[in-house]
Description:
mainly alpha
Amino acid sequence: MKSANRDKAEGTLDKAKGKIKEAVGKITGDEEQEAEGNLDQAKGSAKKVKGDIKDTVNSARK
């Protein structure tokens, strides 16, 4: 099982990657790449939330 910090880090990376894809897609007019960027950002947000939940659960157990 991944740690909360790792989930948060991966989420941040996915969000950054998604923003770049989205920007490149807008510049080049590639709607598919722009959509992939938006999806990567959503996945990144979900991973960050997962990390936050793990932190909360781990804190409650202590």
